[in-house]
Design a protein that fits this description.
With 187 residues, the protein is an alpha+beta fold. The protein has four helices and eight strands; from the N terminus they run βαβαβαββαβββ. The chain starts with a strand and ends in a 6-residue tail after the last strand.
Length: 187
């Protein structure tokens, strides 16, 4: 289906340790995909679309939780061509995701995985189940998944706008990453 083909190139940012930035920029090694069972967009290499400061905030938060994993928080920028994108800002795709959930329920373990705060066990399970089914049905490969994430406290009293809301990308096909760069960031 043509509506999955996003002829769009974006700038995105990945929070990590400074050693990862050096390794990728100096050796050309790719970033590693995340395969946690709580990654909200399923498996992939995670980026914040046009969000270098948020990527750095994330790396700082991770350093506090696991100082052995991130010793010096840093950000690497990437130019990404979304390719065949399962964009969750497109209602056609969220309707397909709803159908994938219905299919997942027929095979889901008991008890059903649940989302808990920042841990998106159910979202991850449904996307990891549904995307291969859609790829088979439409004879395509999803190269990226894109979604908006409402995160953080309200921007002001009574607001539905959150201070840390962002668009996140999970790159499933590393070939979509056209190149990396070191951005200027500050907290």
């Amino acid at each position: 289906m043509r509506h999955f083909d996003y002829q769009r190139t974006i700038i995105a940012y990945h929070g990590c340790d400074e050693s990862v930035v050096r390794r990728v920029l100096l050796t050309g090694d790719p970033l590693s995909a995340s395969e946690n069972d709580y990654d909200w967009l399923g498996y992939g290499i995670y980026f914040w679309e046009f969000g270098p400061e948020r990527a750095l905030e994330w790396a700082v938060e991770q350093q506090k939780r696991n100082p052995k994993r991130i010793k010096k928080p840093a950000v690497i920028g990437a130019v990404i061509h979304l390719g065949n994108c399962f964009d969750l800002l497109d209602t056609r795709n969220t309707s397909m995701l709803e159908a994938a959930y219905d299919g997942y329920l027929t095979l889901a373990p008991e008890p059903l995985p649940l989302n808990r705060g920042p841990l998106h066990f159910l979202d991850c399970a449904v996307l990891n189940y549904g995307l291969p089914k859609l790829e088979e049905a439409y004879d395509i490969q999803f190269q990226s998944v894109r979604g908006v994430f409402q995160e953080g406290t309200p921007a002001f009293a009574g607001s539905d706008i959150r201070k840390k809301s962002h668009i996140q990308i999970a790159v499933r096909d590393p070939g979509c990453i056209l190149g990396y760069f070191k951005p200027q960031t500050r907290l």
